Amino acid sequence: MLNKIILIGRLTRDPELRYTPNGVAVAKFTIAADRPFTNRQGDREADFIDIVVWQKQAENCANYLGKGSLAAVEGRLQIRSYDDSQGVRRKAAEVVADNVKFLGRPKEGSGTAAPGRGQAPEESSHGTEISFNEEDIPF
User: Which domain holds residue 9?
Assistant: First the structure.
């Protein structure tokens, strides 16, 4: 059996960080993931998916992600049941994240990280520019 989900989307609000009674960090947020097609009016629709992140990754999400941040989430789908305040049995679907990658900064004009939050360190995955001779390329 396999239960694996990979999503890319923008956060709809700042992550909400809490701690369990045992001191384990848990963060919750929602991402908007675009559907791969447009509707009849030519607009792209999105699905709003609840994400739950645990431990150190939860603290990192709370510190470095904010409303509008682009993130990739890898995890598993979890469907749980609960009783609401009126005693009605409800179901909730959410993605329990194993890995969250910070893909970019929030869009201009959207919300930013809460005051006091640091900026995510710049990743040097692109390296530095080098000069080369066309004759050096083997193909």
Answer: 5-107
CA angle 42, 48, 53 (to 5 degrees): 145
What would the pLDDT profile of 23-40 be if each residue is shown by its tens digit?
999 999 999 999 888 888
Residue 75, domain member (yes or no): yes
**Token pair 């603290």 is at which residue?**
59
Q: Encode pLDDT of 62-117 as tens digits.
A: 999 999 999 999 999 999 998 999 999 999 999 999 999 999 764 444 444 444 44
Neighbours of 2 (CB within 10 A): 4
pLDDT value for 11 = 95
131 within some domain: no
**CATH number, domain containing residue 15:** 2.40.50.140
Which residues are CB-contacts of 15 (< 8 A; sequence separation ≥ 6)?
Answer: 27, 28, 29, 53, 58, 61, 62, 65, 66
